[in-house]
What does this fold into?
Amino acid sequence: KKTPFSPLIFGDEELGCLVRIDGWLIKVRRPGHRTELEEFGLNLSYSEGLGVEPKWIPVKRYDCKHYYVEKHEFWVSKRARSIREWEGKPLSEVLRLARSDLKNNYATYISKMRKRKGSRK
It folds into this structure.
């Protein structure tokens, strides 16, 4: 069963936008084993301005829906790329790394997306 994360939404005055980090996960329990993470998706998006009705623009996503961990960097391409340095790591560790990356680097990624879209900010 897909379980959503509570979205993390905050305004960044320097960027002049709203930032959203959200996602979902699927945990399974197999007979004789502990419950373990089987699949996840984690998204970074932003909305121009700090207005009431946000229109979310996707920036970056991590997921493992295709049985390997991949990243989508939407300022580069709509195609996903595998993450070789994370191969072989437990999914719980990969999810931690992905969350940390989005929280620590969201401003850089949003700036790259804006440049691709031709925004002046």
